[in-house]
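Amino Acid Chain and Its Fold in Token Form
===========================================
Purpose: to set a sequence beside its fold so the mapping can be learned.
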Amino acid sequence: MSIASNELHALPPIEKLRIVEMLWDDLGQSTTPIPLPEWVGQEVNRRREEMLNPAVGLTHEEVWRRIANRDG
């Protein structure tokens, strides 16, 4: 199946969204691995390290205290 990009650009937004949803669902059902760029793995590792660092995050109590202060 070949779709010209000008045909895609001419579609109304709702149709574009429908196509994106169909593609996303199809990718989700696929067992074929999707190669990711190296920077994605690096970012995953950075975020994991940040998450495991107790100095970066907030305690449960601190989160709720900030929420309470914001609403008050």
